[in-house]
Design a protein that fits this description.
By secondary structure, this protein is α+β, with helices and mostly antiparallel strands. It is built from 25 helices and 18 strands. The N and C termini lie far apart (73 Å).
């Protein structure tokens, strides 16, 4: 869709705050679905408006394929009539009074205009039929309360009773009503305010939450207790895939929400000094790493340099990554989560966090469980990256041997590229020369990984000696000896003692078995040459 008006241009034409209607028809409402809805609404004698995110994103110049229609009447009835006209199936959600259809690549949701009231112990509203004005009052923020009229007499008129267009221009997140009312009624809006400030902020245009709203969030933070973890996590996930996730996590810390949402992160703020020696404040470091990952991942995606692996029917396929990977962002957020538990002061070495990667990896499942996140391969991926995040750094500062590189490739597998993104982003020293030197060495390690992988194909390493083969060859049941032989062969391949070929692995298997007093079923004379 061709959007030609900017926020500043719209501002010059005035807003409905001046009671002067502002009609916008060029660029924003050209899609045929809008004229179809307008025609059918007129025939049914109801008034319909485009409202919310689509209107906001039009002025921001962001492509949007999700359209919300509010109807002064039955949203479901209008949706069914539109669906019949465009030959599209309509999905009705009677419990919510909404209906949805798809038409030519876009998704349109219809709802009847309503007014809401809330009980203190629930974020589920008591809903009554209402007008457009009632519906706009119940919206979370002024920038999400703007509407376009679809009436024939003022098609495209911007209905903006709370000055959302002005707030959009000024980069302000503000509630239509008193923020205490808005946030107490539905405390999820506190997290949404922070998420919108994070998502909409760019290098050119910063968005900020009004001071009145920030203070209200602090006052109402205990209301978070009525929210489900799933809804909170959904907002966090949207924050994490923004270009600067640190904006959101700093705001959550500033308002006290982070203590409720992810208290393990606030522990990273703790610092201590002994004998005049202090340690790094790990909360700020973590947020810097998350932003670094976002920037580096975006750069690599634009160059087509990051890939994802998918397994189906025991077959792996590789695709080029085109969107930020949420679970890489979670790995960055949690990579140092084990530091508070492992912090020690040594008079000679100073502050140490030995083993924090192991402790942190053990903490990941409990955090995922508490946040109601998946406990499947996604959790294991985050756990793996947390556990391995020091390994490439160790290679940077030590001599890079083929054996160490093979073991890293073996342990990381197809996640090696993401691990390297995390580890490079973890270089955050305030000494520019040190950062430059470490990043240069890091590039050497990356090249070494590519060279070893090309030569030895370790990334998807599979031991050529299977347990079943060992049991069949030596006539032994499952047990410790089988695992010892497999481990011996694997280590020999990873250490470069033998090549990753069945013949060499088979010979070494038989040698190790003989040392353990095991011989092929035919006796010692059956040993291969």
């Amino acid at each position: 869709m061709n959007r030609t008006k900017t926020i500043s241009e719209t501002q010059r034409h005035g807003t409905s705050e001046t009671s002067e209607a502002m009609t916008i028809t060029h660029g924003f409402l050209e899609h045929r679905i809008f004229s179809i809805i307008s025609d059918i609404a007129e025939k049914k004698g109801v008034r319909a408006f485009v409202i919310g995110g689509y209107v906001r994103d039009c002025f921001l110049g962001c492509p949007s394929k999700d359209i919300d229609i509010v109807v002064e009447g039955s949203g479901i009835s209008l949706a069914e009539a539109v669906g019949e006209a465009v030959h599209s199936n309509v999905t009705v959600f009677k419990n919510f009074g909404t209906a949805m259809l798809r038409y030519k690549g876009i998704e349109v949701e219809f709802v009847g205009a309503r007014k809401e009231s809330y009980r203190r112990d629930s974020r589920k509203p008591i809903v009554e039929d209402g007008t457009l004005e009632d519906d706009q009052k119940r919206r979370d923020f002024t920038i999400n309360a703007m509407a376009f009229s679809l009436q024939k007499e003022d098609f495209g008129a911007l209905v903006d009773p709370f000055g959302g267009i002005r707030d959009l221009k000024d980069g302000i997140i503000r509630t239509p009503l008193n923020p205490d009312t808005t946030y107490s009624d539905d405390p999820l809006r506190m997290v949404r305010a922070i998420r919108f400030a994070t998502r909409l902020t760019s290098a050119e245009h910063e968005f900020r939450i009004t001071q009145e709203s920030l203070e209200s969030i602090r006052r109402n933070r205990d209301r978070m207790s009525i929210l489900s973890k799933e809804r909170i996590t959904e907002e966090l996930n949207k924050m994490l895939v923004c270009s600067r996730p640190s904006v959101g996590f700093r705001l959550m810390d500033e308002t006290g929400l982070l203590d409720f949402v992810l208290p393990q992160l606030t522990k990273l703020k703790e610092t201590e000094t002994v004998n005049g020696k202090g340690h790094k404040e790990n909360f700020s470091h973590t947020l810097e790493v998350v932003d670094n990952v976002a920037a580096l991942e975006a750069s690599l995606i634009s160059e087509g340099m990051l890939h994802d692996w998918h397994t189906a029917d025991n077959t792996e396929t590789e695709t080029v990554r085109t969107e930020p990977y949420l679970w890489l962002r979670w790995a960055a957020l949690l990579h140092d989560i084990g530091k508070p538990a492992t912090k020690r002061y040594d008079p000679q070495a100073g502050w140490t966090f030995h083993g924090h990667e192991i402790v942190g990896a053990r903490m990941v499942p409990k955090i995922f469980q508490s946040m109601k996140m998946p406990l499947n391969e996604k959790m294991k991926y985050v756990q793996k990256l947390v556990n391995l995040h020091l390994r490439p750094i160790a290679l940077v500062t030590e001599e890079v041997t083929d054996s160490a590189v093979r073991r890293l490739l073996f342990d990381a597998g197809n996640d090696i590229d993401d691990l390297m993104v995390l580890c490079k982003s973890d270089i955050t020293s305030k000494n520019p020369k040190k950062v430059e030197r470490l990043k240069h060495n890091f590039d050497i390690v990356k090249q070494k990984l590519a060279d070893v992988e090309a030569k030895d194909a370790i990334r998807n390493f599979k031991n050529p000696i299977r347990g079943e083969y060992i049991m069949e060859t030596f006539g032994i049941p499952p047990g410790k000896p089988v695992g010892m032989i497999q481990e011996h062969v694997k280590n020999a391949i990873l250490d470069g003692i033998i090549e990753n070929r069945f013949e060499e692995a088979d010979r070494l298997m038989r040698e190790k078995a003989a040392e353990m007093g095991l011989f092929p079923k035919g006796g010692p004379e059956s040993q291969a040459d």
